[in-house]
Amino acid sequence: MSTRISMTVNGKAVSAEVEERTLLAAFLREHLRLTGTHVGCDTGHCGACTVLLDGKAVKSCNMLAAQAQGANVTTIEGLAAADGEMHPMQVAFKASHGLQCGFCTPGMVLSAVELAGKLKNPSEAQIREALDGNYCRCTGYHNIVKAVQTGLANMG
Fold first, then answer.
1. Which of 25, 46, 152, 156 makes an SS bond possible with 61, Cβ 3.0 to 4.6 Å?
2. What is the DSSP string of the chain?
3. Could you give the angle at the alpha carbon of 32 between the alpha carbons of 23 and 89, nearest 5°?
4. pLDDT tens digit string along 97-133?
5. Which domains occur in the chain, in start order?
6. How far apart are CA 13 and CA 7, in angstroms?
């Protein structure tokens, strides 16, 4: 059985006919070709699939596309400016060596952007708590935390 869904993704209105069981991650990757949303575990534990849903970080492999009906979804591709200039948090991850293979990075960056909307000057402990549920298997978290601190400072 299929259902019609409509939402705003990265500032653009989109709608499609999808199977009712289509996950948001699959909709973004397969229907919209926004492959920056990664699927690592299919259980919502690793955080690679994290996107912003109405400004809140959610794991898109854990929710149906239909649950995003009418919502504003931001993927990693939607953070950059229209001219291609990277978002300050993306710049900070690059400059602070907060990534290695890059697989977890989109989810980490989007979780950090959500944090920026909540706290202006979080402690290291608050940053680590905000990133809980986003796993990195390559770099360790020291440079990731440093990247988030730098990104928050650059976001002003």
1. 25
2. -EEEEEEEETTEEEEEEEETT-BHHHIIIIIS--TTS--SSSSSSS-TTEEEETTEEEEGGGSBGGGGTT-EEE-GGGTS-TTSPPPHHHHHHHHTT--SS-SSHHHHHHHHHHHHHH-SS--HHHHHHHTTT---SSS-SHHHHHHHHHHHHHH-
3. 90
4. 888 888 889 999 999 999 999 988 899 999 999 999 8
5. 2-78 (3.10.20.30), 88-155 (1.10.150.120)
6. 6
Would the CA dihedral through 39, 84, 143, 99 be positive or negative? positive
pLDDT tens figures, 26-66: 999 999 999 999 998 878 889 999 999 999 999 999 999 99
Query: pTM value?
Result: 0.91
